[in-house]
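tool=predict chain=A
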Amino acid sequence: MNNTLRNGFISAALALFAAGSASAGVLSSSNDVDYTATLSGNILNLSIDASGNSWDATELDILQFNMAGLDKVDLVSAPTSGWTYSFKPSATGKDMAIFTATSTNHTLVSAPLAFSFAFTGTDLNFDKLGLKATYLANGAQSDSISALNVTVAAAGTEPSDVPEPASVALMLGGLGLLGAMRRKAKRG
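tool=predict ok
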């Protein structure tokens, strides 16, 4: 009975780990806002759904990216036009790219918003990308500001049907461990 429980636990742990390594790039939920990203080369596709927020935010005002090694971030596509760009390099930490909506072009958050950004720089590490989004409620800056460290390493277009080498190695290692435990149980 003890071996059965142990084998079941190991199998469940391996299955959960393998499922986690195939995630599709949901970043986080913060302050009733869902952020989803996919990464293709240096192009980050970002979806922001703030339509269900509970703090009366009606418009997206500012998007700010922080990452070491940035040279520039280009807005490839956005739901509305009229965004201004500023860049602040940092010698000691993360460079900052800021996109601010002009006062007549704030983006309504009544539906999911889709953006694409092209990142340029040396040794960019998207595991260390920081995102900060600022919203307006009734024309004034909202007290609720969503800030998170974005992890897009697992993000891709869609999880592939072909398993990654690390997942295959983990599965084979787990099967080998299960086989060894079964042989030992047969002997004893």
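The helical segments are 2-20, 165-187. The first strand starts at residue 26 and ends at 30.
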